[in-house]
Amino acid sequence: MTFLQPVTLANDVVTLEPLSHDHLEGLCDAARDGELWNLWYTSVPRPENMAAEIDRRLGLLHAQSMLPFTVRRNDTGQIIGMTTYMNADAAHRRVEIGSTWNATSAHRSGTNTASKLLLLTHAFEQLQCIAVEFRTHWMNMQSRTAIAHLGAKQDGILRNHQRMPDGSLRDTVVFSIIESEWPAVRNELNRRLKR
């Protein structure tokens, strides 16, 4: 049995479905909600490039380095974005949660917290991970704040880590939650979702 197996994860707020080409139109609509491809510090595909992005993520699934999901709101049934387990390390039981984006209308709705709770629960309780990592652009303050609010600790900064599509260099901030921190993080995320 391989480390990452496609699985559907659900709670009262969202359902994370294994990514497929059936989600193409909904993902295009979600990206149009806020024209997310215009955010220079992140990488959200334009609608005309969405099919290629689905192909890319499914190729990484086949290579066992990524498990991609489509995020769907349960109250409306609307597709609001994508998220993944990525940079999977089966030998050391580690994954990164990343390549996440959500439609602008879903921001501050609790959907991101609900998605992360599902992913963290599966990582620590089913995959038996010893650590879950998060990475984001130094300039993406919204993402950095959201990651810190999850209970992740900042591990450090990888300077000049990647070249962005516009040619600029990205400093990457690395966060993680380790296995011993998970019970407290889980309790806090559940408390926040019940509010």
From TrEMBL:
Pfam family, one: Acetyltransf_3
SUPFAM superfamilies per UniProt: Acyl-CoA N-acyltransferases (Nat)
Source species, domain of life: Bacteria
GO molecular function per UniProt: transferase activity
Gene3D superfamilies: 3.40.630.30
EC code(s) of this entry: 2.-.-.-
Record bears the keyword Electron transport: no
UniProt protein name: GNAT family protein
Provenance organism: Rhodococcus sovatensis
